[in-house]
Amino acid sequence: MSGPFNRVLISNRGEVAVRVIRALHELDIEAVAVYSTIDEDSLHVRLADRAVCIGPAPAAESYLRIPSIIAAANTTGCQAVHPGWGFLAENPAFAEACAENDLVFIGPSPEVLARMGDKASAREEMRSAGVPLVPGAPPLEGADPAQTAEELGYPVLLKATAGGGGRGMRLVEAPDQLERAFATATAEAEASFGDGRLYLEKAIVPARHVEIQALGDSHGGVLTLGERECSIQRRHQKLIEESPSLALTPALREEMEETVEQAVRSIGYTNAGTFEFILGPDGSFYFIELNARLQVEHPVSELVTGIDLVHEQLHIAAGEPLEQTGRAPRRGHAIEVRINAEDPSRGFLPTPGKITRFRPPLGPGVRVDTHVVEDAVIPPQYDSLLAKVVAWAPDRDRALARCLRALNEFEVVGIPTTIAAAAQVIRSEGFARGNYSTSYLDEVASSLPALAKTTA
Questions:
Q1: Burial of 100 (0-12, 13-18, 19+ CB in 10 A)
Q2: Is the separation of the CB atoms in 169 and 209 below 8 Å?
């Protein structure tokens, strides 16, 4: 099958670069990789048809350098750029630079990225689209956060206006915690995003984190692919995702998907995007943010719908209409576990180093997305994600059993990982019943050996 482009550059590394390269090759499209000096021998470089070194190991000097990536795309004759996730994936200046150099940015327009990348403006966009919002306040510049918090009522969440991935976010449960939380969240936001502005939201407790995957084309077509339950998190970063969510009734699912479809049309969104929501115990849902890119957990939606999201991204970017709109048909149950180079017993401390043995699981209904090979060195400069184990079965019980079988088969030697911790979470009573919230890991940590903190 031939694709909509002849040659595409992937402006990313690791697992997402491998994922995109494989999709490009399936569509008979040449893949151009970029890499930092420390990634010269990485799998995404080996799989690509061409590869260009764009700088030294620090991301600021390589994967975040827009001129270097644009130059790599131009010198190799690429027609388009796929940003993956992280790095420059949601950077409007990068999307604009692509357009200025006659390169198709495989994602939404620079204008949409700019509007939705700022969480405060995104809230107003969603308000105008009729999307339910968590009660909150605009950026706190010049405002008294203590007064705002009192008006909202504790507990509250401090959140970075330009934030993501849990950075610049703090839960504040009482007035005496506010001053310190404000200072640390501001500093973290400034360091992570170059923007220390914060805003406040009412904390919904207990809450579940449920997101809706959507596709929008340039012809007005919208397709929603159902939900992903993402409540198993540490430090506001997801570890386990599944679809469908046991918390959603058919009526609530349709209400959420209809809301997302209206929002996609209202803001003129094109390509793949994920609308993230907090789900309260009473079934009320509230918009958190729009991830204007491919998501780490996208395989969950692919397995329950049979739709390849990267293929769809490429066709949409080329101006083609969606083949189907409305609600994507779904079947069975899928669960994804992120395997990170981290030590759960030490607060999920990153554990870079050399992997001396790497044997991912195989067998029916199991998919493993990874960029790791045996003897690979996991550098400290980048994200700790090693692999994603995704299991599908006709129902949840069989999907969980299949996922556990896969985790038991997975061998990683040389560095600590989250494999054992993930298996223990899946076996835990609350998770098995589907009765969990975003605080679940904290609640069960003391009862799960792999999560019990050491004194080292």
A1: exposed
A2: no
Q: Is 234 an annotated catalytic residue? A: no
Instruction: State pLDDT tens for residues 194-231.
Output: 888 898 988 998 999 999 999 999 999 999 999 999 99
User: Can you give the length of the chain in residues?
Assistant: 456
Domain residue spans in the chain? 7-106, 135-202, 208-447
Which 3-state string (H, E, C) describes 71-119?
HHHHHCCCCEEECCCCCCCCCHHHHHHHHHCCCEECCCCHHHHHHHHCH
Instruction: Extract the tokens encoding 7.
Output: 């040659």
Out of 13, 293, 330, 396, the active site residue is 293
Q: What is the dihedral of CA 55, 61, 65, 67, to 10 degrees?
A: -60
Q: Residue 377: is its pLDDT beyond 90?
A: yes
pTM of the model: 0.91
Please tell me the CATH code under which domain 208-447 is placed.
3.30.470.20
Query: Which CATH number is 7-106's, of 3.40.50.2000, 3.40.50.20, 3.90.1150.10, 3.40.190.10?
Result: 3.40.50.20
CATH number of 135-202: 3.30.1490.20
